[in-house]
Write a structure and sequence with these properties.
Elements (H helix, E strand, L loop, with lengths): L2 H18 L27 E9 L2 E9 L9 E7 L9 H11 L3 E5 L17 H15 L5 E11 L1 H12 L3 E7 L4 H7 L9 H16 L6 E2 L6 H5 L4 H13 L9 E2 L3 H4 L15 E6 L5 H7 L9 E6 L11 H18 L1
Parallel strand pairs: 3-4, 3-5, 5-6, 6-9, 9-10
Antiparallel strand pairs: 1-2, 2-4, 7-8
Helix pairs in contact: 1-8, 3-4
């Protein structure tokens, strides 16, 4: 990287940190929400938040349910499940979109993945596709029994890694009448090939490391983790991709939450690296909307996934002009653009 490029990246990261730091301190919110405009207390006639827990496969899952303005449990409302990004928790971008979609008239739920966030499970930060997909099924199990939900009008929104898992869940779970993704991240492909397919030459080496990590766990040894880092602002600015530079700023600085981490068990790679979000994507028969930033360096994942969804003719890719991947999480004009598409899509399909 040239000195001028490095300086520009550093300034961009610093600008991101400075511009949002006032709106995203979990200490200042009774629900530890870290997004701009987050609920601080429930007011009559407004969107309300309801922290809940439920049991999924023997584990306690921590979730937030959002109810729309004027919520009446005797009525029936279109309902949405919102799956959070890799390393994210329900108090970050998933909560923002859940709250805004509740404002548009939906009952919404977003939950911390099993083994992650405030949900149960040991060892911590296991990150396997089968578990993340089961989390989505579990949210549907819970929310369709919540007072006021209309199970016949159930939709699904997945963000980043949650978008890849949403594609997988919707393939077989036909309770979901439509599915949308925002900045979809194909976790299996990236863990296998590297971001932008930049690490194909180290697949065998990384699989051996994952195998060794599992063997160590099975023998009662210390759990090994990948994705752990403690980077300075300069190190963040020097990362090779916008997603990583802006992701570190978002998750570690501007929208940091103590339950959020990039860390995952290294043995999870045994499952992640043999999985792909587009496997059997032709089983999606529901309407499908994929949303991504036009400048996102993750855009290739959505562009390549959509044509493979041959089981539905009601499908589209909407590009948010000028947005990068992480900017769709918090920049007001980009969030508004995404929500305009999402509310119209779910109004039509639910």
């Amino acid at each position: 990287m040239s000195r001028s490029t490095f300086t520009s990246s550093l300034l961009a990261a610093a600008s991101l940190i400075h511009s949002t730091s006032q709106a995203a301190d979990f200490h200042q919110n009774p629900y530890t929400l870290v997004y701009e405009g987050a609920i601080t207390h429930n007011e009559p006639g407004q969107v309300q938040i309801h922290p809940v827990t439920y049991t999924l496969n023997g584990l306690t899952i921590a979730a937030n349910v959002y109810t729309p303005p004027g919520y009446d449990p005797s009525k029936r409302y279109p309902t949405l499940v919102v799956a959070h990004p890799n390393g994210g928790v329900k108090e970050q971008v998933a909560g923002l979109y859940a709250q805004r979609l509740a404002q548009a008239g939906h009952i919404t739920i977003t939950a911390d993945a099993a083994y992650q966030g405030a949900s149960g499970g040991l060892p911590r930060n296991v990150d396997k596709p089968s578990l993340r997909i089961e989390d989505i099924h579990g949210m549907a199990d819970y929310i369709t029994r919540y007072p006021g939900t209309d199970a016949s009008r159930l939709g699904l929104l997945g963000i980043c890694g949650g978008g890849g898992y949403a594609l997988a869940a919707a393939q077989t779970d036909k309770r979901f009448k439509s599915v949308a993704t925002l900045s979809m991240f194909n976790s299996g492909r990236v863990r296998r090939n590297g971001y932008a397919d930049s690490a194909r030459d180290t697949v065998s080496q990384r699989l051996q490391q994952a195998s060794d990590a599992r063997a160590q766990e099975a023998a009662g040894g210390e759990v090994r983790y990948a994705g752990d880092a403690n980077l300075s602002d300069e190190q963040i600015a020097s990362l090779p991709f916008d997603l990583y530079r802006q992701g570190y700023a978002y998750y570690w600085k501007t929208h940091a939450h103590p339950n959020s981490t990039f860390r995952y068990t290294q043995s999870s790679l045994l499952d992640l690296m043999r999985w792909d979000a587009t496997d059997h994507i032709d089983l999606i028969t529901q309407p499908l909307l994929m949303i991504a930033g036009s400048k996102a360096d993750s855009l290739y994942m959505s562009q390549e996934a959509l044509p493979k969804a041959t089981g539905t003719q009601d499908k589209a890719l909407f590009l948010i002009d000028g947005a990068t991947h992480i900017e769709t999480y918090w920049v007001p004009r980009y969030v508004d653009a995404a929500l305009k598409q999402l509310t119209a899509f779910f109004a039509r399909t639910l």
